[in-house]
Amino acid sequence: MSEDMAGVTIGRLLERAVEKFGDREAYVFEDRRLTFRDLARETDVWARALMAAGVAPGDKVSLMMANRLEWVLIHLAVSQIGAALVPVNTGFRVDEVGYVVGQSDSVMFIVGAEVRGRSLAQDGLKVLQDERVSARTLVVVGGPAPEGALAAEDLLARAGEVTPEELAERKATVHPDDVVLTLYTSGTTGFPKGAMHSHKVIRNMADAADRMRLTPEDTVVLYLPLYHVFGAAAVVTYMYAGGKVVLVENYDVARSLELMEQERATIVYGISTMYYDQMQHEDFAKRDLSSIRLCVTPGTGDLVRLATEKMGPSVNVYGMTETTSMTALCELADPMEFRAETVGKPLPGFEARIVGAGGETLGPDTVGELVVRGHPVMLGYYKKPEATAEVLDADGWFRTGDAASLTPEGYVRYAGRIKEILRVGGENVDPIEVETVLMRHPAVAMASLIGIPDDRLDEVGVAYVQLLRGATATADELRAFLKEKLASFKVPRHVVLIDEFPKTGSGKIQKFVLKRQYLEQSGIGG
User: Fold this and answer.
1) Cα–Cα distance for residue pair 518/526, rounded to 1 Å
2) pLDDT digits (tens, 9 = 90+) for 295-334
3) Considering the chain, what percentage of its residues have pLDDT values greater than 90?
4) How buried is 332 (Cβ within 10 angstroms: 0-12 exposed, 13-18 middle, 19+ buried)?
5) What DSSP string describes 32-72?
6) CATH number among 2.60.40.10, 2.120.10.30, 3.30.460.10, 3.40.50.980, domain 10-23+37-198
7) What is the three-class DSSP state of 138?
8) What 3-state DSSP class applies to 432?
9) SS3 helix, strand, coil % of the chain, rounded to 5?
């Protein structure tokens, strides 16, 4: 049973962490190691500096930066002074960034100097010239500030203009119901939407920490981007549990394995592509990863079993930006059947139902749409009441857009995005099923199924496949492999071998890019 976090703000959570875990290490980044006491002290400097710069309660501050200590400090500082953080995907182009900074009504834009050789400082200056953007202050962290921007050091020098007493007064005005995070979903069509969350996210992260049995002895190497809900939530999760977070600025397979061994990581966070890349890397067998006690493995049942065999005990998980990252999660005590083939039971803060097309509640083991309700569900999309009403009803039920079923025991069995389900000649085809079977082929490293229009069948499948290093297989061989294991209507009409998948900044395969490329190359749809 988790400690009662109902009335706690993120600022108070940090104070609690200092009281409980003060001199334990909280963060490691490159050659810096911060205890929880250090974390609180440096956060206060940022908070006073932001107050001196005019950031007021209710204001929004956009942040575009790779994983660095400053990302965490800024997040906690913004939370303490009653403002809301707007994390920006570092993979977004200037126009996309301008939309997010402008649509969120951010008053300040903070960027890292660069990411993977790209100057975010120069991009930031362009964003400030966007007519949609009202922010007029650009702060640059980790490098020189170009003309028209403010260096982080110069901003922090203003902290002395605000007394500790004034900061304490501001902290006391922050309420748990205040918006603290606005996370923009990276949709495949149209512009992203800003999902608003209050300080009540703490309760969800506490429940997740308890289900994972996190303690101050746990360490995670965090290469998931902090701008992603999974990464951002970890800040709260580990502050609640007193565990240590080792930040990795940019994901590199070899470096991640090195740090997991060096820091004696006990917990592994990642998405499926990261796990596959790590387990297939030439350094994997050389690394001592015996300290790992839990891998949080969102993906297929095969991945959960493979990670359990090769890396450490694994559990599946389900969550969304709109539902504060973790919605359902397995426990290590669950039988492997449930850990692999379901995404676990909903966390205590959630109610979950499966509904049919008419909104009726469906019985056990019947696939429909998963809807959830509870304090971890977003407050709504910022300045998008119509989009909010489409997914969030008057009773607080959120439509996930995911196909799923509930087992008689209450576990959620995920069946894929409803919009990604293929309709082949009147038959439903679940991409996850086809991808899972393909990845059982000894030559296959990764697979992704998309649907393309077809005059006769309405839609047919196209499977993109990346082979293991040094392995060989033809498209015809892979189709023959599938024909032995799947009904004919589930077998993709085409298999395309690919060297590398297009991915989001958080490592997810961009199916819409694959589909666009296929349609362009085949001449379908103009």
Assistant:
1) 12
2) 999 888 989 999 999 999 999 999 999 998 899 999 999 9
3) 82
4) middle
5) EEEEHHHHHHHHHHHHHHHHHTT--TT-EEEEE--S-HHHH
6) 3.40.50.980
7) strand
8) helix
9) 35, 25, 40
pLDDT at 353: 97
Tokens 């108070």 correspond to 12
pLDDT of residue 83: 98
| C-alpha–C-alpha distance, residues 319 and 322, integer Å | 8
- Residue tagged 């800040």 (tokens): 235
- Helices 253-262 and 272-280: crossing angle in degrees, nearest 10, is 80
pLDDT, average across residues 65-88:
98
Quick one: DSSP state of residue 121? H
- How many C-beta atoms lie closer than 10 Å to residue 507's C-beta? 18
Domain ranges of the chain: 10-23+37-198, 421-522
Annotate 373-390 with DSSP letters as a single string.
EETTS-SEETT-HHHHHH
More confident residue, 480 or 425: 480
CATH of domain 421-522: 3.30.300.30
Phi, psi angle pair for 457, to nearest 5°: -105, 5
CA distance 106 to 128: 11
- How far is it, in rounded angstroms, from Cα 175 to Cα 199? 8
Q: Which residues contact 381 (CB under 8 A, 6 or more apart)?
A: 193, 194, 195, 196, 387, 388
Query: Rounded to the nearest 5 degrees, what angle is found at the Cα of 158, between the Cα atoms of 156 and 163?
Result: 110
Q: List b or e across 157-193, with b for residues whose CB sees 16 or more CB atoms inside 10 angstroms.
A: eebeebeeeebeebbeebebebbbbbbbebeeeeebb
Q: Do the strands 422-424 and 427-429 form a parallel or antiparallel pair, or are they unpaired?
A: antiparallel
Q: DSSP string of 282-307?
A: TTGGGS--TT--EEE--S-HHHHHHH
Mean pLDDT of all residues in 252-279: 95
Residue 62 and residue 100 in contact, taking contact as beta carbons nearer than 8 Å: yes
Pairing of strands 458-467, 494-497: parallel
Closest to 450 (Cα-Cα) out of 359, 385, 512:
512
Rounded to an integer, the average pLDDT of 109-126 is 95
Sign of CA dihedral 305, 309, 310, 315: positive
pLDDT of residue 3 exceeding 80: no
Question: Do you know the residue count of the chain?
Answer: 526
Helix (H, G, I), strand (E, B), or coil: what is residue 450?
strand
| Residue 329: per-residue pLDDT | 96
Task: Give me the pLDDT at residue 458, please.
Answer: 78
306, 279 in Cβ contact below 8 A? yes
d(CA 175, CA 185): 25
| 422, 449 contact by CB (below 8 A) | yes
- For residue 1, name the pLDDT band (cuts at 50, 70, 90): very low
Work out the pLDDT band at 523, boundaries 50, 70, 90.
confident
Under the banding of pLDDT at 50, 70 and 90, the label for residue 237 is very high
